[in-house]
Every structure is written in structure tokens, then in C-alpha cells.
Amino acid sequence: IASLLKSSAESSAESSPEIEVNGYVRTIRKQKRIAFAAVGDGSSLQPVQAVLTPEQALSLSTGDSINLRGKWQKCPPGKAQTHELQVTEATRLGYNDATTNPIQKKYQSPEFLRTLPHLRSRLPFNALVLHLRSQVIGSITNFFNKEGFVQTHPPIITSSDCEGAGEVFTVSSNASKDSEQKSDDGEVEHFFRSPKYLTVSSQLHLEALAQSVGNVWTLSPTFRAEKSDTPRHLSEFYMLEGEMTFVDDANQVMDVIENMLSTMARDLQGSHTVQQILQAKSTQTSEEAAEEGAVTAEELSRRWQGMAQSDWPRIQYAQAIETLEEAMKQGTVFHFTPSWEEGLQAEHERFLAEHFGKGQPVFVTDYPIEQKPFYMSKTPGRDRTVACFDLLVPDLCELIGGSMREHDLSAIQKVMQERGMLRTLTPEQQAAGESEIPDHKLYEGKHAGTLDWYLDLRRYGSVPHGGFGLGFDRLLCYLAGVGSIRDVVAFPRWYGRCDC
Ligand code: 4AD
Ligand code: MG
């Protein structure tokens, strides 16, 4: 339907040869001598208006799936639509029991709709967001192809916790065969000999692949067992990750990100899907506008414009803290007092995004070492910070995290030893009489298997490299102006919820 509406808007022909439309009856109005049906198919908010005879319309009701044939004709001036379908043949394909269908035409809250994930994506706006998802992937794929990045498929089941935050889901056995898999002492035998984990990030594997084929990227499912009950966190989400070799400055990675997202925004800004999403925002009801995180059409088009332009601000963490402290002195109220040690809270990130970005995304760089994972290299010439960045956007806060990776074997070994990630000890730990850590106790309390293989990447032909991970569902939330990440993912999973 989107392409039919688009092509007829561009054509001056009075009518076209017989066409066929497949879709769902959005509304139907039956009069004595004539009937009108609005038909949609999820590609557009705007339906096709079909004109039927009373006989053709007799058995049709709202929600039915139908196949229509007819002439696509220009309407006389004064009608809401420019074209309508003069139906010659109507076939109902599937009946909708409108009285029991839980999706109703009246306002239904996001919370209620989340109880119906298998049906709610039929709502025209939700269907548009799925179209947008597919188009963003298409645009970014083109970008990477042009830039010579290789798309790869890193594993989902892993033996380590990349981020070291202990937020991993465990994969251990074949549940339906557990009883047969008990060993002599009654213990369930692990399918992979020891517990494995659903990936929290593909980064470590991408680092291996980047050293084989050059710059790589992936868009991959990612899992985090964090109990965060926020509109920005899911237990299962998609992360878009890139890893670049032979780069020695985080600015080179930030350049690629900025280029990728601004190219995508310019590509899609004028598309039918984005225009329809903007239209939905400009006609939203007072109930929709009152939903948590709801944005106006003006705010949403500002987001697209801000992303489409380049030269996004890049500020250092130290400057961010100073700015926040200064803002507090000037009267801005924060729930948490900003400080170098405590790190940036969501409210601080929101403030920084607006203050520095003015509608554009903002990079904050060079965070304190203690706040970041083991793999980041130090900011050249400095001791307290790492060569990393977060990309912040208004409302959504952190959209991307990335860094240069420590590629020197002894430097990364030292950090991993200090963080209890290796069996062998630092000379200081040995001098203090600490005993070597057995394999099964590695990273105790968190969850990580041996990362010896990761050290091989530094042993054999190590190169300066860096990369990033973008929360793909957060990006969609931002670009579609949806208040919660639970509503841009068709079947969302979060703490306590995985129902369909
Ligand atoms: O900042 P994070 O944890 O970075 C990494 O995992 C790196 N290893 C990525 C890399 O350098 N290859 O996660 C990256 C992004 C975040 O900025 C955020 O947008 C998103 O992933 N993210 C989530 N999105 C939805 N739900 C969650 N629970 C998320 N946790 C992180
Ligand atoms: Mg992060």
C-alpha cells in the first residue's frame, strides 16, 4: 500500500489498469447503495479507500483480511484522499471475531498492549516501527559495504563474560533430558562440560575476526540478566558492533560511527515510513502524548535533523563533570551529586546531551579507568583514564559504548591478573603469598571462563585496534519517538517477563 500511495502521489494519470490490494479492513461504512472500506497492510498509516457495492461489503467487518481487485482512480477535489479503489471483486480471506479481539480501536495503554505481543504489532504505528527497523538495517548494511567492513556472525553461546559485570545468563544442559544426564553422583552433567553463557557482547570474538579479515561488523542478539526496570533496558536486545584494526586513535572509531548514523539519517529522513511516523506524532491523542517518554513531532524531527548533520560534539569526561558541577552551582537540581568517582547517572547524561548537543548526539570520552571493563587501553599520555567514549542522545542517554583495546600483551595480562581474570598472578600478588587461582574459580562471583585465547590475539601479530557497540533497539526508540524500548521490540523480554 505504501508504494501504491507513493507512486500515485507522483503520477498525474486519472486511473490505472486493474490492480490488486491485499490487506486488512481498518474501518467499514455500509450505506444503502454503496460501502466504503479503509484497508491497511502495515506499510503505511494512511489506508487505501475502497469503494464497494453493498453486496461486496455484505460479509465484511473490521479486522478481516481481504483481497480486492479494482480500478485505482483519482478522486474529485474535496475528498480527504487523492485516489480510491473502485472495487470490482472482493474476497474475504480471513474472518476477524471483532467482539472478542482484544485489540480495539479505542486508546489502549502500552502496558496493556505489552500483554498481547503477538497481536499489537498489527497496530499501524507499531507496524511502521518494524518497517523502520528493517530500513535502518538496510541503510547501515549499505554503509558498511561501501566502507569495506565485513559482516560477521560471532557466537551467541560463549565461555566468557566480555563486560565482566556478572550479568550473564547461563546455558548448561538439555532441560528435557536432564534426568538422563545425571552422572553417578546425581549431578546434572553440563552439555558443554561446564556452564556457558549467552553473549553480553560480541566484542571479544569480533577482535579475533578483525585480526583475520580487517574491519568487521555484526548485528547480533545480546543478553543481559540485569534486573533494571527502566524504559531503556531489555534482557534480550540487538547490538550493532564494529571492530577496526590498524587504528590508533578513538577519534577514528568515532568518525565511522558519526558517518554511519548521519548517512543513515540522511538516507531515511525523507522516506515514506519516517514521514508517516512524524505524521503519527503530529496527530497523537492527548492520551498518547501523556505516555511516559512520548515526544512531539517537532522533537522527533529535531532528532532526525540533528543526527543527519555531522560534527557532533566530543567532550572529555573531566569536562563533563566540571560542566555538571557548574550547572549545580547555577541552580540545576540533580538527584545524584556529580563527581569524578561516582560516574555519570542517567540524569547527568540527559543534561549533557542537551547542553552540548542541542539536538545532536554527543560523545563523552576518556572515562576513569575504574569505571570501565578490562580491555580498554589507557588514554595516551595519561594514567587515570581510558581511550573510550559513550555516545549520548537526549532522553535515551547512552546509545553507544566504545574504546581502543589494549593490544599490548603484558599490559593486558597485568590488568586481567589484577581483576582476577587469569590463573597466573602478578609478581606483587605472588610476593604477597597469594596462591594461583584454579580454573573453576576464575573470576569468582562474576562468571567467566578462561580468556587465554583472548591473550593469543596479543601474542600473535597484535595490532592497534578499537571498536564500538550500539544498542540497536535504543536507536529505534530514539528515531521512532517511542517512550519505552519494550515497545520497539516485537517480543520484548525483561526481568520477570518472557511470555510469548
Ligand atoms: O556499553 P556496553 O555495555 O558496551 C559493550 O558491551 C561493548 N563490549 C561494546 C563494544 O565495544 N563492542 O553496551 C553497548 C550498548 C549500550 O551503549 C546500550 O546502548 C546498549 O548496548 N545496551 C542495552 N540496550 C538494551 N538493553 C540493555 N540491557 C542494554 N545494555 C546495553
Ligand atoms: Mg556502556
UniProtKB/TrEMBL annotation:
GO MF assignments: asparagine-tRNA ligase activity; ATP binding
GO terms under cellular component: mitochondrion
Enzyme Commission (EC) number: 6.1.1.22
The entry's keywords: Aminoacyl-tRNA synthetase, ATP-binding, Ligase, Nucleotide-binding, Protein biosynthesis
PROSITE patterns membership: AA_TRNA_LIGASE_II (PS50862)
InterPro entries from the UniProt entry: Aa-tRNA-synt_II, aa-tRNA-synth_II, aa-tRNA-synth_II/BPL/LPL, Asn-tRNA-ligase, Asp/Asn-tRNA-synth_IIb, NA-bd_OB-fold
Occurrences of domain Aminoacyl-transfer RNA synthetases class-II family profile (ranges): 130-492
Gene3D superfamilies: Bira Bifunctional Protein, Domain 2, Nucleic acid-binding proteins
NCBIfam families the UniProt entry points to: asnS
The name this protein goes by in its record: asparagine--tRNA ligase
Gene source species: Aureobasidium pullulans EXF-150
Taxonomic lineage of the native organism: Eukaryota, Fungi, Dikarya, Ascomycota, Pezizomycotina
